[in-house]
Amino acid sequence: MCLNLRFFECMYTRFFVNLFQARTHPQPSTVDRPPSTTTMPNKNVNLSLQIVPINTQDAYPVIDEAIYAIQRSGVKHEVQPFATLMEGELSELWQAVLDAKAAALEAGAEELILNIQVHLKKDKDVALTEKTEKFR
Question: Which residues cross the membrane (predicted)?
Fold first, then answer.
């Protein structure tokens, strides 16, 4: 399963590296598009991260270390019972995900499932409060 985790990390890292390189160094396109469709501005997005330790006797210390890593990252976040919600620029949130994964592995996890959801809008910020404020 570690091979799958490395593959997952590699694929997502490649995706985000390509995304950010395209944003900072646009490649010539064969299709004539307006600039707004070829680059993504630095807008706030929402990201939900659930870390599930597999084959671990006591999962809570592993999960706690992952949450501490997110707290240390400084990104806006909200700890929920089943996931941690984050808000910020995608690159910052992705780094927080990688830090949380590393902290969970350092805390003794041998195998993890990372469930990640991202909500973004093309030309607008996304806020956690816009989804939940009316229910509070």
Answer: none
